[in-house]
């Protein structure tokens, strides 16, 4: 019985949680969001470039995209974060000082870009060739046709996979702690771990875990929602709300 | 479902194909195609599948670049032109419609009007609705293609191509993907367009249509035009054994 109580207290010691909560909310949560959001944006941009290069007719675009993807998908995220975060630190020092965030975000974004590039590429390649043909037959150039017609359709199809990648980023953002964080730079995991170390029980870490779930579980449901929507098609109601329609709505 | 058309083919062009060659590796798809389509005339291209009919159309507007030969618009060799310029003059409609599923019917037509012709939203809508009127689908302007029948989708595709005021039109088996009861309406549209004096190349399996509407019928087999002439000549007194055999199979 004693052992069970001990284990219970290790995870659910309310005072420890209450102590950690304010810093989690005011420091950890914003920092995790900054890391995840910034690297998601960077990763999406890199992914888009990689996808377009990856389906190019030109070997000199396709080949570097392939190598990039293989390298950053093949390395453990921690290795990439340390190599970039520590390796480029002297350069960063001259540019913006000691803050490890820019390099951490860069590393996370580079890795995410490799995955997102593959997601986009598969989506774009799944779009029927007739779409490109028909767009070009109207007189659009290859790039305009891709931009206006093919890529938007391709991305729509892979939105669920893309959101999965964003979920991974929320979790992987915890790895920047390897770069060494000042008190004000700590994100959810680091704060949880610090409090856990100080109090000698894991309750604060469990609280950090709950925060991650609050961020990721809604995203998971967003994936399911988008997935269903794509499967069953757009409900007619959404179409009726189309601004274009109101202009031409039959009386 | 009869439509009263108000198409005005302002400026039909004389389209001429000379000695067109194309090979995919060892597979010679076009082996010296010659075809003359006088301004305002409709030429139906018939022939067994794999004879190069669809490829010929794609080579004429350079969705596929030919290996050698000439495509002349009013006597001018277009192979030195920017293909995008060529395609703005020569419209194309496909077997699989290839409408943009992520856009409304109206947006399908306005996209090129706005982005290529530089029309304002109002101007583009007006042109597009006018075209939809002609094909009898004005009331579907706000729908998405997925909610339309095959016949309706093909009408939209025709409206989309004609909205660009092409000087010649290419039709690639545009009724082959349709249910039998929908074929007639589309053929009636094509007949109307031909009567309006559009320069047209129609690849088709509809022999009745070819006989009634075409100014000239060209029989393709093995990557060349084997016989060409007025419909009566081709259907009633075929000269060569290949055409005779083909007709005995399809009629």
UniProtKB/TrEMBL annotation, chain A:
Membrane topology of the entry: Multi-pass membrane protein
Regions annotated as coiled coil: none
Annotated localization: Cell membrane
Transmembrane parts of this sequence: 33-53, 74-93, 99-116, 137-155, 204-226
GO molecular function, one term: transmembrane transporter activity
GO BP annotations, alphabetical order: amino acid transport
NCBIfam families tied to this protein: HEQRo_perm_3TM
Protein name as catalogued: ABC transmembrane type-1 domain-containing protein
Gene3D superfamilies from the UniProt entry: MetI-like
Alphabetical keyword list: Amino-acid transport, Cell membrane, Membrane, Transmembrane, Transmembrane helix, Transport
ABC transmembrane type-1 domain boundaries: 29-223
Lineage: Bacteria, Bacillati, Actinomycetota, Actinomycetes, Micromonosporales
UniProt GO cellular component terms: ATP-binding cassette (ABC) transporter complex
Family classification: Belongs to the binding-protein-dependent transport system permease family. HisMQ subfamily.
Classification via PANTHER family: GLUTAMINE TRANSPORT SYSTEM PERMEASE PROTEIN GLNP, MEMBRANE COMPONENT OF AMINO ACID ABC TRANSPORTER
TrEMBL record, chain B:
Keyword Transcription regulation applies: no
Keywords: Amino-acid transport, ATP-binding, Cell membrane, Membrane, Nucleotide-binding, Transport
Source taxonomy: Bacteria, Bacillati, Actinomycetota, Actinomycetes, Micromonosporales
Entry keyword Zinc-finger: no
UniProt-listed InterPro entries: AAA+_ATPase, ABC_ATPase_HisP-typ, ABC_transporter-like_ATP-bd, ABC_transporter-like_CS, MetN_ABC_transporter-like, P-loop_NTPase
UniProt membrane topology term: Peripheral membrane protein
ABC transporter domain ranges (all copies): 15-247
Main subcellular localisation: membrane
One Pfam family from the record: ABC_tran
Family under the similarity heading: Belongs to the ABC transporter superfamily.
Record protein name field: ABC transporter ATP-binding protein
GO MF annotation, one: ABC-type amino acid transporter activity
Record-level GO cellular component terms: plasma membrane
Organism: Winogradskya consettensis
SUPFAM superfamilies: P-loop containing nucleoside triphosphate hydrolases
Family matches, as PANTHER family: AMINO ACID IMPORT ATP-BINDING PROTEIN, GLUTAMATE_ASPARTATE IMPORT ATP-BINDING PROTEIN GLTL
Subcellular location: Cell membrane
């Amino acid at each position: 019985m004693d052992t069970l109580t001990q284990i219970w207290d290790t995870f659910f010691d309310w005072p420890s949680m209450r102590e950690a909560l304010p810093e989690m909310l005011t420091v950890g949560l914003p920092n995790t969001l900054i890391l995840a959001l910034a690297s998601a944006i960077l990763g999406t941009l890199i992914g888009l470039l990689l996808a377009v290069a990856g389906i190019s007719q030109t070997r000199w675009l396709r080949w570097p995209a392939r190598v990039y993807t293989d390298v950053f998908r093949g390395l453990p995220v921690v290795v990439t974060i340390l190599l970039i975060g520590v390796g480029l630190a002297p350069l960063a020092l001259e540019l913006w000082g000691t803050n490890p965030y820019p390099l951490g975000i860069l590393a996370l974004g580079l890795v995410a870009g490799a995955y997102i590039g593959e997601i986009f590429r598969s989506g774009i390649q799944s779009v029927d060739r007739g779409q490109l043909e028909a767009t070009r037959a109207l007189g659009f150039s290859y790039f305009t046709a891709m931009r206006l017609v093919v890529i938007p359709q391709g991305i729509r199809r892979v939105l669920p996979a893309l959101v999965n990648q964003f979920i991974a980023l929320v979790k992987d953002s915890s790895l920047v702690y390897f770069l060494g964080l000042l008190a004000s730079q700590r994100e959810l995991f680091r704060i949880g771990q610090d409090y856990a170390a100080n109090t000698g029980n894991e309750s604060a870490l469990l609280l950090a875990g709950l925060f991650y779930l609050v961020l990721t579980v809604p995203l998971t449901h967003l994936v399911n929602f988008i997935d269903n929507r794509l499967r069953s098609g757009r409900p007619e109601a959404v179409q009726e709300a189309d601004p274009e329609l109101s202009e031409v709505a039959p009386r | 479902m009869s439509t009263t058309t108000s198409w005005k083919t302002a400026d039909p062009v004389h389209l001429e194909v000379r000695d067109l060659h194309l090979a995919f590796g060892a597979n010679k798809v076009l082996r010296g195609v010659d075809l003359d389509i006088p301004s305002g005339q409709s030429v139906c291209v018939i022939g067994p599948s794999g004879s190069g009919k669809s490829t010929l159309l794609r080579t004429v507007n350079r969705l596929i670049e030919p290996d050698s030969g000439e495509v002349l618009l009013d006597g001018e060799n277009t192979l030195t032109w920017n293909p995008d310029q060529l395609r703005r003059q020569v419209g194309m409609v496909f077997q699989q419609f290839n409408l943009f599923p992520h856009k409304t019917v109206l947006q399908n037509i306005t996209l090129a009007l706005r982005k290529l012709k530089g029309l304002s939203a109002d101007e583009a809508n007006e042109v597009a609705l006018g075209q939809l009127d002609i094909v009898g689908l004005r009331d579907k302007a706000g729908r998405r293609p997925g909610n339309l029948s095959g016949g309706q989708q093909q009408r939209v595709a025709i409206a989309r191509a004609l909205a660009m005021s092409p000087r010649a039109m290419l039709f690639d088996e545009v009724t082959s993907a349709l249910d039998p009861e929908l074929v007639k309406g589309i053929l009636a549209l094509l007949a109307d367009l031909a009567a309006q004096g559009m320069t047209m190349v129609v690849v088709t399996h509809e022999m009745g249509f070819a006989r009634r509407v075409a100014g000239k019928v060209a029989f393709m087999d093995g990557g060349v035009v084997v016989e060409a002439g007025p419909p009566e000549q081709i259907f009633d007194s075929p000269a060569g054994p290949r055409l005779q055999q083909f007709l005995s199979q399809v009629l």
